[in-house]
Amino acid sequence: TVTLSNWPGQVHLLMQLAPVTDDGRRLLEAVVSALKSAFAGEAL
């Protein structure tokens, strides 16, 4: 289950991920990997 919220005019994005299914777990792992790369200054 993925719950996605955003607010007009704001750069904030809230995602609530449920890693209880294989798809949810893979999505969560992909998001974590992308965030780690972004904060390390690496291009995706």
Could you characterize what this model shows?
Strands 1-2 form a two-stranded antiparallel ribbon. The protein is flat. It has a domain of 27 residues. Strand 1 and strand 2 form a beta hairpin. The longest helix is centred in the C-terminal third of the chain and has 18 residues. Helix content is 41%, strand content 23%. With 44 residues, it is an alpha+beta fold.
Give a summary of the structure in a few sentences.
The chain is of the alpha+beta class. The protein is 41% helix and 23% strand. It has a domain at 18-44.
Low confidence ranges: none
> Average pLDDT, to the nearest integer?
75
Secondary-structure element sequence? EEH
* SS summary, helix count: 1
Rg value:
12 Å
What is the rounded distance between the termini? Answer: 25 Å
Strand order of the largest sheet: 1-2
Shape: flat
What is the helical fraction, as a range of percent? 40-55%
Tell me what portion of residues adopts beta-strand conformation: 15-25%
Based on secondary structure, the structural category is alpha+beta
Biggest sheet character? 2 strands, antiparallel
- Find the count of extended strands (DSSP E, 2+ residues): 2
